[in-house]
Amino acid sequence: MEVSLEAYRAAIGLFNYFRIRCFKFVYSMNRADTALIFLSIALCIVLRIALSNDVELNPGPFFQFGHLNARSLNRDDKFDEISELVKENGFDVFAVTETWLNVRVPNDCLQIPGYNPIIRLDRHQRMGGGVAFFTANSVVVKRRLDLELAAVEFLWIEFRIKHFDILCGVCYRPPDNDSVSLDNFFEYFQLVLDKIRQLPKQYFIVMLGDFNAHYDVANPSGNSEVGGKLYSFLESNNLAQLITEPTRVTSNSSTILDLVITNCPERFSASGTLSPPSNCDHSVIFASMNLITHRSRSYKRQVWNFNNVNSADLNCELSQMDWFSLCENTNDIDETYSCWYSHFRSIIEKYIPLKMVTIRPNDKPWMDSEVRHAIRRRDRLLRIHNIRPSPVTWESYRAQRNFVTSLIRFAKKSFYERANTDLSNPDTNCKKWWSIVNKVCGRENSSTIPPIIENEVPIFDSKEKACIFNDYFVLQTELPLANAIPPIIQPYQTQQFLSNIIATEEQVLELMKGVDISKACGYDGIGNKIIKLCSEGFHVYFTYFINLSLSLGQYPSAWKLANVIPLFKNDNPQHKVNYRPVSLLASFSKICERVVFFHLYNFLMETGFLYKFQSGFRPGDSTINQLIFLVHKIYEALEDGKEVRVVFLDISKAFDKVWHAGLLRKLEALGVQSPLLQWFESYLCNRKQRVVIEGQCSDWRTITSGVPQGSVLGPLLFLIYINDITDDLASLPLIYADDTTLLEIVDDPVVSAGRLNSDLHKISVWADKWLVTMNPVKSRNVIFSLKRNKQVHPPLFLSSNIVKDVESHTHLGLTLQSSMSWRKHIVQVFEKASKRLNMLKFVRFKVDRSILTSLYKSLIRPLMEYGDVIWNNCYDCDSALLDGVQYEAARLVTGAIKGTSSARLYKELAWESLSNRRKLHLLCQFYKIVKNLAPYYLSEMLPKLSSERTNYRLRSRENFTQFSCRTSRFQKSFFPSAITGWNSLDIDVRNSVSLPTFKAKLRSTLFPHSYNKLFDFSLSRRASIDHTRLRLGFSCLREYLFKINRCASPFCECGLDSESVKHFFLFCPRYAAQRNVLFTSAATILGETWSSSSDARKINFLLYGVKSVNYDVNCVLFREVQRFIMSTNRFSMATV
Q1: What residues are paired with 732 via a beta bridge?
Q2: Confidence band, pLDDT 50/70/90 cuts, at residue 1005
Q3: R_g of the chain, CA atoms, integer Å
Q4: Which of 48, 205, 654, 942 places its Cα 20 to 30 Å from the Cα of 33?
Q5: Neighbours of 293 (CB within 10 A)
Q6: Which burial class, exposed, middle or buried, applies to 821 when counting CB atoms under 10 A from its CB (0-12, 13-18, 19+)?
Q7: Burial class (CB in 10 A: 0-12, 13-18, 19+), 332
Q8: 3-state secondary structure of 280
Q9: What is the pTM of this model?
């Protein structure tokens, strides 16, 4: 008889139950023989039940949510139909809106068999409305009254499924057009989310309901006005909406009004709509939550212990070692390497011992051994109590449980205090700083790889995942014709050759001392920190070894081994195709590569080999430089009334599939000769890699093509390989690494299409010749035009495939639209920045103000400023989106309430407006072009100076002549607007000797406000926020609330006067005792300065500090002020 897997699992569950009961019996009676009898009986019973299949199966791995706008549950026939629908589809939680219930309808009339009693929130003041929950009996729920608000129809419940804590809400927003009530709705919604974020647990949030706002995830621009506001709101709070099918369909409309909103969209495996019941005009919506989870296992890792390292003795022993006599064999580089490396490592281990550490990927950042041991003891005491319950065992468990709770609270507090200290410390290195930021923001384990789906089966084991990834990555490097003979090509030049490279001891010492110690080490475990420590004692012999390698034309085999870490790119993290490999090579090998790179790059510059418009991996060039050139060329053509056709080509796995034989042939044609050419051949061939995941390694696999990723020479070798793709093209090719763009200014569409098709054919022939795989499917064509009646352009073909025409394309991080509007790009940036803003919301009560400022300037502002010199001519309504993000960030940093003036906020923080920062970036970029600090192709675009156009000694002779601009869009673009700004600068500023000097002079003009560090002082985050609000003049005092119609009267509860800042600090009798303490402390701190000051000056001292005393004295004063604010409890219930 066959037994189902589900029945077997249920049977095993019953068996475990009997086993525990037997264990309790043994514990109480000390009768092992009797226990064995019980276990035998239990096993027989379990097997009998399993064979009969007469057992209630455990629930599956999916949890079902559902929702329906019922338009009344009062009717028996409708309720019966909804009841059957809920049971038939097996919903675990089913939400209902528009229940139309009132107090006259008892809960007993609304009972669904197998479900808990209804949880409902009725509308009392008028007809209609109302929301409710039906939950399965297996779900133990708790209603969260603290999250409900009288002004809106929000109902919240909390429950725990497996180890997930879930907050589920249902919402009904009436379909009104009152913008005031709409703003209030979002304000209340934000208030609820803020409350949830301040809860001690971290919850999965699932909200269902009828929002009466058309919200299409696939087409945000097609949303209704309310839907657009909801879209922006969810983006800013890092929430996702799952429903993509229309939920209300009429004869003339199809809209998505019923939504599922969550903060964990990756947990949902399916969502959609079901047919509505009778007399309902809304479809049923559902969402299936995947409860399968994978917790990464702890693993051991060997690391170096750098405590108490005596670097002087280490370098002394290394320098005294006779390396040359130890390693006499100079004909085999591998034998020589093996010899010196074994001796080198033994010396290193003598002074820097190894130790084993346990890596726990699942641990919270505040977890330490004391907390861990306390939790284990608590769990052990609970097990003892469950086995032999008694008042004594319960009291032991309860005491330990309370101790663990207090210990965790202290550990969290200590963690955030250390984080504040480390993040504020200027000596904290970059890697540690970002590590702390990731921990604080809850992103520490973002590199943990979830189960990988392979042949529709989830793979959990780390070793298996490593093998799957390695097989996939190696497969991407395979070339069918890798062993073919490369084509014969003519030498690029015959005057200069590069064959012998000699490293100097000074050069190697400088490279060893200058390594970045934050970089990860390769498979051998020798990291940059060790290289830096032993540089003085080992650089002499290591220089000899590098020169030996180069002279023999041999590259050590040990340096060809790479540990590969899979790095997630985007989309579904359970699919291997969404990862890219990051190779970790031996640190010593990179020193040798840097020596070769220095000579090879200089050789390329001397021969002028590299293509002029290749901007990738070249010092002084960047994506921004190429984008400036491309966009200016488009603007110039559009200004002349022409159209521009740009083809964006995609190369499949460009770096991974470089043909080694072809690359060596091109190096030879370039003028690289043996032994260096032989060294390159050795460098490229027989490379091996393995994937490492959570301490588990795959087998070594050989790489047959591609340049080594993670290497120093790899990018430069790729530039050499792809350099001749531009040969003999009629259009203008622009290249950034492997991103190739063809620019064609259209006079005649047919002629231009012919030129482009000819170029695309040449590129296809070149790709076939050099075993490069072009990807026509991902290649795109954009026609830039401002004409109302656009011309018809013939199609373009790449490898016999049509290149798809699109209205916009993202190139080098900038979204270019055919109309040259920046709306789409800015909206995309706004969405990304809004999501990152959510991290500030997550930690705003946990870290100090200065840390929040650093997080904003590091995580959010750079996102909004990438390429801003190019899209600075966007419409004001577009840039206002980004201004709103900065304003919201300023509010989160300071704790200011909504409605606070942006000017006051920026002055408080000494933040520059984004528009002024764009002016700064624009002029700095132009300075680099003028002073030849940018690529020559940009300097060539500069117009003549006035002095070059006339012999008259005009006052404007040092000014650049302006472009002739017909449209305001071109006038506000990079070159015309930069020239206008440059010409308005003083000659002294223009003639600054360096870019930092130029920038400093500009800052003094554009940004007059200096930051008052005193404002960062914080007795506690709450006290600092209240102090800041009082200083800004936008607080919860009644005088301000009355101004914004939030309270009926401005008068204080004491009844004496309007509740102003002055009244609060100086006169309100309710705080007389606390005020006496404050004034006594202030008099002690400031002496005569305090006692002789007027009331206005005293208020100024309490809010802004005293200019005549130093920072430390002001900190003492601010401490007393914030103690006074906290002791009054006036703002204890205020929201941020």
Answers
A1: 743
A2: confident
A3: 35
A4: 48
A5: 12
A6: middle
A7: exposed
A8: coil
A9: 0.81
